[in-house]
Amino acid sequence: MNIIIFGPPGAGKGTQSKFIVEKYNLYQLSTGELLRNEIKKETVLGSQISSIINSGELVSDEIVSKLIQNFISDQKYKEKLIFDGYPRNLNQAINLDNLLKQSNQKINLVLNLSVSLETIKKRISERQYQEKRSDDNEETAIKRFKTYEKTTKPLIEYYKNSNLLKEVNGESTINEINIKISGLIDSIKGWQ
Ligand code: ADP
């Protein structure tokens, strides 16, 4: 089973991905985390990535695609991936479909975690102190939300057309969302 977890910054994608990983023995592929690892290496590429992330824009499709390719073709992760933060635009969605097809895989479920801008601002300002991410200040968070609305949200239509999309209310408690997501995954596992 391959799953996409979709939603604005601060929706809880990472938190829910970690829960799904443990319960269903899947692997979390977070492009945000892969990019932050690249920054830690202090390479030229890392510093370019850092300034893009801090401006709230998207890193180029080419860079992100390179980062995910190896995971998709690796047998170890076959049918076991949770895509957290990828795809983020139409080009990435098409690229992902193609990469999966090349290794005889597909997406089985797209979870859309929805939350309001008010909740996002609150969560990101709390997270700022815990995780110390350089893009978790209010100004960049609002920019990231705008990038999401403009570029990423239209992907909902793309996945609606393929009947894979399931809505999850991201305003509920972490535990309530865990239960909701488990139900959705179990119902899909049931008919596979
Ligand atoms: P969040 O979803 O909370 O914004 P992420 O860790 O998923 O956090 O992403 C942080 C930043 O990394 C994004 O704002 C963006 O600049 C960059 N990024 C992550 N994934 C992608 C992607 N698939 N394509 C382009 N840029 C990405």
At a glance:
With 192 residues, the protein is an alpha/beta fold. It has helices at 13-24, 31-40, 44-55, 61-73, 90-102, 117-131, 138-152, 155-161, 174-191, and strands spanning 3-6, 27-30, 81-84, 109-114, 165-169. Helix 6 packs across helix 7 (138-152).
Written description of the protein model:
The chain has helices at 13-24, 31-40, 44-55, 61-73, 90-102, 117-131, 138-152, 155-161, 174-191; strands at residues 3-6, 27-30, 81-84, 109-114, 165-169. The protein is an alpha/beta fold and 192 residues long. A 5-stranded parallel β-sheet has the order 2-3-1-4-5, with helices on both faces. Helix 1 packs across helix 9 and helix 2 (31-40) crosses helix 3 (44-55). It is globular, with a radius of gyration of 16 Å. The model has no long low-confidence stretch (mean pLDDT 94).
Features:
single chain, 192 residues, alpha/beta, 5-stranded parallel sheet, 9 helices, 5 strands, binds adenosine-5'-diphosphate
Amino- and carboxy-terminal Cα gap:
9 Å
Order of helices and strands: EHEHHHEHEHHHEH
Question: What coarse outline follows from CA principal-axis ratios?
Answer: globular
Strand tally is 5
Strand order of the largest sheet: 2-3-1-4-5
Layout of strands and helices, then pairs:
Layout: E1 3-6, H1 13-24, E2 27-30, H2 31-40, H3 44-55, H4 61-73, E3 81-84, H5 90-102, E4 109-114, H6 117-131, H7 138-152, H8 155-161, E5 165-169, H9 174-191
Parallel strand pairs: 1-3, 1-4, 2-3, 4-5
Bound molecules: adenosine-5'-diphosphate (ADP).
